[in-house]
Amino acid sequence: MALADTLHDFSAMALATVALALLLVFLITRFSSNQKRSSEYLPLPVVPGLPLIGNLLQLKEKKPHLTFTKWADRYGPVYSIRTGASSMVVLNSTDVVKEAMVTRFSSISTRKLSNALKILTSDKCMVATSDYNEFHKMVKRYILTGMLGANAQALGIDVESSIYVEGLGTRLSREEIFDVLVMEPMVGAIEVDWRDFFPYLRWVPNKSVEMKIQRMDMRREAVIQALFREHKKQITSGEEIEYCYLSFLLSEAKTLTEKQLKMLIWETIIEASDTTLVVTEWAMYELAKNPAPQNFLYQEIKKVCGLDKIREEHLSQLPYLGAVFHETMRRHSPVPVIPLRYAHEDTQLGGYHIPAGSEIAINLYACNMDKKQWDDPEEWKPERFLDSKYDPMDLYKTMAFGGGKRVCAGSLQAMLISCTAIGRFIQEFEWKLKEGEEANVRTVSLTNRKLHPMQAIIKPRV
Ligand code: HEM
């Protein structure tokens, strides 16, 4: 019995020793492979900042693309900054941006929203702000199939002068509707709530910002509701309604809630109006400033369209017009910094280790002003897109529409609308900048919009 007990104890001890040895081997291997993993990467350059707030003060002018580009000259194309308690990795070169958008997409496909954006987007209830998941795939498919062509519209009604908005108890004009649906939320989207930078202080009330954004949200909802009512009124009165995205969604997307429907309609309005307008205005500014390219474009249009008004079908025969569009997208990108992405797991970019939890800022402005990639990047030269090294059909050369699985859903539509508008303006008038306008290049808001609208002298063509 004593011998059996001894043998039993001995085999238990042996087993325990083997298990311990295996555990040690496992831990050592893990540890050494981790050691190897972190030593494989270069240390990520860090832009020095202040304790606690990091680099926030250096970004206070709300033109992050310019500050990021300045830092890239000093710290290289990939570096890290601190925005309060969060760390943000900033990407400033085409190679590394493509790596983020395509190769490492699965690790950085999600969005982290500010408090203001959470309210304005009903917490990721839109294509652009949702994480990359089944909802995203479904609603992106809806936009891609339901909003086609230059004549695509969100709603099949045209607000001629004004509509009654019951939720606000008043009538609003077209301009006021544009303000509520586009201008106010654009301002709200960059509203700074300091709690975004210090999530551990989220419990501290910040009523003034919250109330401002909630008011915008309430006004936006009331206007969309009024537009929906007009749309329904027109249908029930038997009036013929033009094909529109709302009719498409009502017939195809039965699983959407009323709230989702409103957000998806609003999304197409806000994403299409400002950006398309911004690029068209900058193209006209450059053409009015540069008579030779303007004349070249006029001659091209005249040759292809003759006395006809330029239409969508002509665009494929107008390479110089395409080049004007792409060069304007490069030089005056309407979205200079892509809405922040978020690394939800450890990954790598440009040979650096990127820890899970980092926010990722993609600075398209720096990519498009990179001297290594573009000759004289400050110059606006459409002919660079006619060079054989650029494929004129390549929409995504400047990445101004993003890239990979989250590429802009309206790129083709934006191009059709903007090119047709530029073409019509040039067909009808000769453009010249008003004196002093050359220096009028200050921008405002998220989308590079001109602070002061362009002023030009136009002369009808004979
Ligand atoms: C010149 C005009 C436009 C520019 C410069 C532009 C630019 C962009 C950019 C940079 C992104 C982010 C892509 C990314 O995260 O990688 C984006 C996303 C998006 N854009 Fe546009 N856009 C324009 C017009 C439009 C129009 C007309 C629509 C039409 C409805 C639209 C709908 C969207 C949507 C739905 C997304 C989200 C895509 C996703 O997350 O999968 N955009 N756009």
TrEMBL record:
Pfam families per UniProt: p450
Ranges annotated as spanning the membrane: 12-29
Key words of the record: Heme, Iron, Membrane, Metal-binding, Monooxygenase, Oxidoreductase, Transmembrane, Transmembrane helix
The keyword Metal-binding appears for this protein: yes
Required co-factors: heme
GO molecular function terms attached to this record: ent-kaurene oxidase activity; heme binding; iron ion binding; oxidoreductase activity, acting on paired donors, with incorporation or reduction of molecular oxygen, NAD(P)H as one donor, and incorporation of one atom of oxygen
Stored PANTHER family: ENT-KAURENE OXIDASE, CHLOROPLASTIC
Name this polypeptide is given: Ent-kaurene oxidase
Organism: Tetracentron sinense
